[in-house]
Amino acid sequence: MPDWAAPDFVALHAAARPARLACVDLATGRRWTYAELDDSVSRCVAVLLGRGINEGDRVAVLARNSGWQLILHLALGRIGAAFVPLNWRLAQAEIDALLSDCEPKLLLDEAAVAALGAESDAAAPRVLASTPAANAPSILLYTSGTSGRPKGVIVTERNAFFTAVNFSLLGEVDGTSIFLCDSPMFHVIGLIASMRPALMQGGTLLISPGFEPSVTYGRLADPALGVTHYFCVPQMAKMLREAPGFDPTGLKHLRALFTGGAPNPAANIRSWLAEGVRMVDGYGMTEAGTVLGMPLDPDLIAAKAGAAGLPAPTLSLRIVDDEGEAVREGAVGELQVRGPNVTPGYWNNPEETRAAFAPEGWFRTGDLGRRDADGFVTLVDRKKDMFISGGENVYPVEVEGVLLQHPEVTEAAVIGIPDPTWGEVGQAFVVGSPSCTPTVLADHCGAHLARFKVPKHFTLVDALPRTGSGKIQKQALRAMGAQ
Fold first, then answer.
1. The whole model's pTM is what?
2. How far apart, in Å, are the Cα atoms of 290 and each of 161, 163, 381?
3. Are residues 105 and 57 in contact, defined by beta-carbon separation less than 8 angstroms?
4. Which of 426, 429, 411 minimizes the C-alpha distance to 476?
5. C-alpha to C-alpha distance for 32 and 70, rounded to whole angstroms
6. Domains of the chain in sequence order
7. How far apart, in whole angstroms, are the C-alpha atoms of residue 388 and residue 398?
8. What Rg, from alpha-carbon coordinates, does the chain have?
9. Using an 8 Å Cβ cutoff, are 342 and 363 in contact?
């Protein structure tokens, strides 16, 4: 497909509906109409150019969500530089590895982002003469690799545009839509799925620094805010229900409560639906944005509860066996996708890029699912050993590598096990000396890993179960973990 200019929705709506409310920073109360947002983005462009940021450069950010972080992201898009939001929950050693990989020209923390905003308010607007190519890297989102090495997923403006199209159609987004955005902007849900569809349609973003159950529930239930769309992982929805003063009638005005990032049981979906709240499950990934989504019709939600939904309109999806052949209807296979929303690959990592794609450009998701006669896809398992804890991906090989750095540990294996609060948590099986107590091992992991990656359970064993070829039998460990 020939290259095309990246569409600038903020500039479009600044001309077409200048007085429409575009964005509210809930922490500061700062509000921007589309005309004001366009002006702030243009002023931020001037500041960035003054700091030597040019097309092809990368700017990394370690900060919670804010209106100015959104403006920075949009300004970098106009310049043709890449926005690299980093997970501020990571340990310093992990952050250093990501910075070494992306080599940003500028690194901003929360205070620096706020200072950039103040400087932009005083700058003269800068309008660029040309629009950057839509197929150049616009965003780098880091996700841990199965080899333990983090992977920077390249997201182009073309990718982000088609994810916005996909979710807009599946999620019934229009110019009256109001999104509460408290999912972190270093995730595809927080940065792209929660923001791009509303900006595309001329809707409104309410940007919060982060999720707090009682505060978030209050905002969702506030008729003055009028939230229509909200993304969360199932564990966050559970915390909302447990918030003081929770009343499901306060959420009935939502177009839907959208969930993803972790399995959402059918019984849970039907429970919310019975209380008048349309809980709509979906499936996406950093490498492809929105892939599957449930329709918002209550009868379909009830009938298909447990399914992740229908394939997004701009992508092709197939389910194949280990030989790459399509499986029959209802059979389980790996989901593979292809389309303009799919990443061109991983930053600085040609080996992982090659491994991620099957012949003819099909992206291997690594997830297993089945499709019914009506086209609805249900996810059943993951081919890889990754598990999801509180909406965060955890890769056992990375945790195992840290455990093996401890001088008294000789072998280690990590699996994900069910947890009522976080969905899944890590359980580590360790071969080592008696001094390897859970406290010692947890402290060791905590010094090298983000807290959500540290196993919640440690079991000291004499040996790990292995196959005849020496591979660890994780299925046997899962049976042990279930006990």
1. 0.84
2. 11, 6, 19
3. yes
4. 429
5. 12
6. 9-380 (3.40.50.12780), 387-482 (3.30.300.30)
7. 14
8. 23
9. yes
